[in-house]
Design a protein that fits this description.
Helix content: 40-55%
CATH topology of the largest domain: Glutaredoxin
Largest sheet: 5 strands, mixed
Strand order of the largest sheet: 5-4-3-6-7
CATH superfamily of the largest domain: Glutaredoxin
Number of strands: 7
Mean pLDDT: 85
CATH class of the largest domain: Alpha Beta
CATH architecture of the largest domain: 3-Layer(aba) Sandwich
Strand content: 15-25%
Number of helices: 6
Order of helices and strands: HHEEEHEHEHEEH
Distance between the termini: 64 Å
Low-confidence stretches: 27-35
Shape: elongated
Structural class: alpha/beta
Oligomer: single chain
Length: about 180
């Protein structure tokens, strides 16, 4: 009888311990503090990949033939961020040195028509994967990451406004720090 009671108490304590660990993990992965740690820090190496866009053209990261690549982590829901769209349209209009790609987490047949409707037809749409998003440490969007031709992250952040797009572009243009 005592063995049954001991086993029941031990099982209850094990369940409580597992729930406590899961609760702590959930708290660490949610909230604004966790989102601040998303993405890759400037100076880190971005994942290498080669993907085909909506028109059958191959795109690679790090970029070839251009000094910078802007990787947009989003999908058709980008239309819910009109200020970000304005910032991206302005970047497309004035900065021909940057290759701009939209990296989808999964196939999405609505993304290309929506981008055209938003005036972002010059953006290549690539279908990545949840694993690729994970390698970039990106969970939410719209998230922007500038990568240079050496594969180093120059600037990255979650964005909600056009001024943030412009500020990230300015940060990406700064000379890389020595030792990074």
């Amino acid at each position: 009888m005592a063995a049954i009671a001991f086993t029941a108490v031990a099982a209850a304590l094990c369940v409580a311990a597992v729930l406590a660990v899961l609760g702590i993990a959930q708290a660490g992965l949610s909230g604004s503090g966790a989102l601040e740690r998303d993405g890759l820090a400037p100076g880190m190496q971005a994942p290498h990949w080669s993907l085909i866009d909506q028109d059958g053209n191959e795109h690679t990261s790090p970029p070839t033939g251009r000094p910078l690549q802007l990787v947009i982590f989003a999908d058709h829901s980008l239309k819910s961020f009109p200020s970000v769209v304005d910032g991206l349209r302005e970047l497309l209009a004035v900065d021909r040195e940057i290759e701009i790609v939209l990296l989808l987490r999964r196939p999405n047949s609505v993304a290309v028509p929506v981008l055209r409707e938003l005036g972002l037809a010059g953006v290549a749409v690539l279908t990545g994967s949840s694993a690729l998003y994970g390698r970039y440490n990106v969970r939410v969007g719209p998230f922007l990451m500038f990568v240079d031709s050496a594969g180093s992250v120059r600037a990255s952040s979650l964005v909600n406004y056009a001024w943030q797009v412009a500020k990230l572009r300015q940060l990406a243009a700064l000379p890389a720090e020595v030792g990074s």
